[in-house]
Amino acid sequence: MVGAESLQNGCEVYVDFRFFLLDQNKGMFLVIQDANKKEKCFHAMMLYSGFDKLITLTSFTNPSNGYVIDDNCVIGAEVFVCKERRAGKGESISKIKDAVKCKHVWKVENFSKLGTECCKSEPFTAGERKWKIILYPKGKSLGEGTHISLYLGLDDPEKLSGSKVFAEYSLRIVDQMHARYECFKVNDCDWFSTSSPSWGWSKFISVDTLNQAGNGFLVKDACIVEAEVTVHGTATAL
After folding, report:
1. Boundaries of each MATH domain copy (predicted)?
2. Among the listed residues 227, 184, 187, the one whose alpha carbon sits nearest the alpha carbon of residue 209
3. Which of 13, 179, 185, 238 is most deeply packed, by most CB within 10 A?
4. Same domain, 165 and 193
């Protein structure tokens, strides 16, 4: 198959084909095709298919068979394209050796005055990518009205252009009253991409628990959210 560079990623072409050798003495063709009559799949990483043993050299060069006359032969092919389809994409995965954990602290002030829309932290860098913490003070999805929803997201997912990032991350809300460093810490690993730019939890902490004075999560109408991000690898579509 030629012109494969114009194919979309993951495109597959299913083909029936057979070869012809002309007996130049009799004007007749020897027809050679797959005995199983099975369609062959062509794609960007499999551009050709055929037969390792099409015909023996003895038969091919025997003058009585007429396949080679005056040092010339005539070869033909018949091709029928059965179908084309878009298959899953191949990927090239790169692992980051000695990945570095990056931490970002975000103080969310005037919490009681926040509306239903999401709030976003300033961008921060981890693994050569820009990230942000996304907070829904009134909850989102399954947590709407009852919980705080908290997510980690890429700040510029459109720049990935076919790539994705594998990151380990923790999100937490700090107990400011008791100086507990890690409260409601959650660890997870996910692939971040243009189609999935953020991951997190719709029910991170209940509104009642957050507002309870003795818990120390909300002090002087402010809460402190922390994120730790370690980028372990990237994947790029082939």
Report:
1. 1-79, 101-229
2. 184
3. 13
4. yes
Pairing of strands 129-136, 124-126: antiparallel
**How far is residue 233's CA from residue 137's CA, in Å, rounded to a whole number?**
31
**DSSP codes of every residue in 46-101:** B-----TTSS-HHHHH-GGGTSSBTTB--EEEEEEEEEEEE-PPPEEEEEPTT--E
Residue ranges in the chain modelled with pLDDT below 50: 182
Q: Does this model's pTM top 0.85?
A: no
**Total number of residues shown for the chain:** 238
- For the chain, the domain total comes to 2
What pLDDT shows up at residue 49? 86
Mind listing the pLDDT tens digit for each residue in 214-233? Answer: 889 999 999 999 999 999 99
pLDDT for residue 88: 56
Structure tokens belonging to residue 74 = 């005539």
Residues of the domain holding 221: 93-237
CA 18 to chain centre: 37
DSSP 43: B
